[in-house]
# Entry
Amino acid sequence: MSSPEMAGEHPRNWGVGETALDVSTGLVGRVMGSVGPRYQLRPLNGGREWEADQESLEAACQSDALSAAVVIANTSQRMRERM
# Structure
């Protein structure tokens, strides 16, 4: 993928509630807010927020969100099996 600077585009402004892929971590999250060029994201299943630079966010495609949901389901199942 090319960076926005290379394509002559400005980085996208993300709205609260949008689902984004943080390419620097490989995590998919829901945008919770922003401060300057940094966005706060929360995992789709809830949990601790993390910050990401505007340049490292991409629109999460359906397969990204589905992959995140599978990880959540698998983790939940393993936790139930340990009980």
Q: What stands out?
A: Strands lie at 19-22, 27-35, 38-43, 50-53, 57-59. Residues 4 and 16 are 21 Å apart (CA to CA).
